[in-house]
Amino acid sequence: MVTGIILSLVAVAFLLIVIEDIIHVNKAKTTLFFGTLCWIIAFICPINGQSFEAVQHQLDENILEIATLWLFLMSAMTFVAYLNSKGFIQNLVHRVIPKQISERKLMFLIGISAFLFSSISDNITATLISLAVVLSLKLEAKKRIKYATLIIFAVNSGGVSLITGDVTTLMIFLEDKVTIGHLLLLVVPSAISVIVLAALLSFRMNGILTFKAQTHRRIEKTDITIAVIFLSTITATLLLSVLYHVPPVLTFLFGLSLMFLIAQFLMRKKDVNKKIIDYIREIEYDTLLFFVGVLLLVGAMKEVGVLNQFTVLYEILAPEYANYLMGILSAAVDNVPLTAALLKADIAMDPRQWLAFTYATGVGGSMLIIGSAAGIIAMSKIKELTFLSYLKMSFYLLIAYTIGYVGAYLAGFLMPIV
Description:
- By secondary structure, this protein is mainly α.
- It contains 21 helices and 2 strands.
- The radius of gyration is 22 Å and the shape is globular.
């Protein structure tokens, strides 16, 4: 009885995630509501007659996982919120792009830029910056859809190889399924898949585009310093994790504290209305609350035993084929709960197979417009981009995804199994 109730609530919650754009109810609200409700029910009516202590222990483990992810994301997103509010990243983009460029060259430039931006920032910021470039041009609707499609795929591909770029990658890394050294092997196949998609989408695009003149804002010394601290923190996170096994969340919190202290020193003589620490309020708390709700839901699914059902596909197919299909499935089912479910189900795979799974769940969501945060944002910014218009690009997307996945699988043979 209790199991049925909890599973029904989980099903409703995941359905509301999928149809968020239709009902216009933020998925952070629905997942947090149903996630906490499931655990309250588990305490009131313990599953399989478990004791209060057992349920409390399970919740404590779930909360520890959530707290680690929350603090890491909060730290990274605060850096991005500051640089974004200062127009630092947008300013750099407009300084680099020439006044005139061919449609084909712009396709490759947009793809590579979105790929790189999503590696050092969150997918939301990378998507918004890349879309801003496209929206500043007078393009036909069909061409605008093609550029947006590339941006969505490139953003999802760019973050998959770094724990700072994609949440599912971070989740898999924190579970010790792959190392940072392993993840860096995904850079090449991910980049190749983006280039392939750019080539496919740019076919027969031979026009010349002219950018509107932009007034460049002066880049402040403080902004440059914080950008350097951000990049240094990312580098230190990678190195310290590989060399000394320092938890990424610890290094990023240290980098955040360094940002606060140094910025406070640099701003001490300036007449500023906003303190540096205030930028922590500008991060996407909707995103953070969504992850809390999702992980609470997945934790509840684990306790009722439903996660064991995810292993069925892996009993029928070899992991390399099952992972490929799981990536495509992540386009319909949010990749965060899907990844969390597979991790908690404790699927038996070696690091090579987990590496392929990392690529699949990170990029597979690109197959549908509702399959990733980048897709949802792009759909809200470009009116011509709908579920159906994006679906017309599915053949190109499937080719690029398949090439990237095969590359990720082959990259696994470059690392020893430990």
